[in-house]
From TrEMBL:
Its EC number is 2.8.1.13. The lineage of its organism: Bacteria, Bacillati, Actinomycetota, Actinomycetes, Micrococcales. The keyword ATP-binding applies. It comes from Terrabacter lapilli. Residues 285-357 form the tRNA-specific 2-thiouridylase MnmA-like C-terminal domain. The gene is mnmA. This is tRNA-specific 2-thiouridylase MnmA. Gene3D superfamilies: Adenine nucleotide alpha hydrolases-like domains, HUPs, Translation factors.
Amino acid sequence: MRVVAAMSGGVDSAVAAARMLDAGHEVVGVHLALSQSAATLRESARGCCTIEDAGDARRVADVLGIPFYVWDMAARFQRDVVEDFRAEYAAGRTPNPCLRCNEKIKFAALLDKALALGFDAVATGHYARVVEATGADGGVRRELHRAVDAAKDQSYVLGVLDAEQLARSFFPLGDTTKPEIRREAAERGFYVANKPDSHDICFIPDGDTRGWLTRQLGAKPGEIVDSDGTVLGEHQGAFAYTVGQRRGLALGRPASDGQPRYVVEVRPEANQVVVGTADLLGVNAITGDHARWCGPAPDGVVHVGAQVRAHGEEYAATAWADGDRVEVRLDSRIRGVAPGQSVVLYDGTRVVGSATIAAARLDRERVP
């Protein structure tokens, strides 16, 4: 097969490209230029997509002896990921830009361009597995599963892939742990074998999300109130807060009962942040929209595992599809579920699909 290997300049994508070549595929390395003003050097493990990263990817391609190109997708990334991130926070929601990037850039823009140029598939360095299984009709289908290395598993951020995209995607690292990947990279002579992993939000390399949002949206002072409307403090922008947050509230009035306070709601229309005790955070019912299925949509009510954070715990639940929406009922209450986050559903290790959380609440009929 003719395969585009997405090469970020890191160790994971380098080994992924090498493994695709070892498997006998015709491989072309592609680095995605996602920044309209890329920094020359990476200053820390935060961020990515610097000119240095592009150079690292090119050096790996040279070692492998494969063609290498840089594809400019900065405008698309700015529109579909950065502007979406800013708009979601302005609306009082908490988005996950990595899911949006996978959906809109790596497995839409990149895959679409690759197919248009005559390639058959895209390979990335994500930690996840593609398993071929026999369907009820006797045909073979490709399923997305968790990686062997639970600490590095990235199936959550790939839950936005649909069946057609999954059919043309390869994740060569899913059966390997990160230490093994680094050893393999060193054995192959890759300069990036010990390069630090990038983390956090790539377009906010200093890690200061609140500061970035304030620069983008401007300071908008407002009230921090409790559930009955009593003013407890002031904030500089409701967009800087998310449900479940405890740190950085700077409340002027301590709680009379001595219990810590958490953000329980963000009201962008009133520019208010509502705080309360931990018991107000517990929810067991989630409504999601923009449902994406990695295979057939659930037929009726199904028992699933639900995960609401990239490296969070999986919770037992039931779920059912309703057009573009999905309803999830958790077997127990969980805290800190914010609109804008994604809920990803699992059947064992298999990813069923995902949805963007529109609302979360406590369904008292389900409370023991």
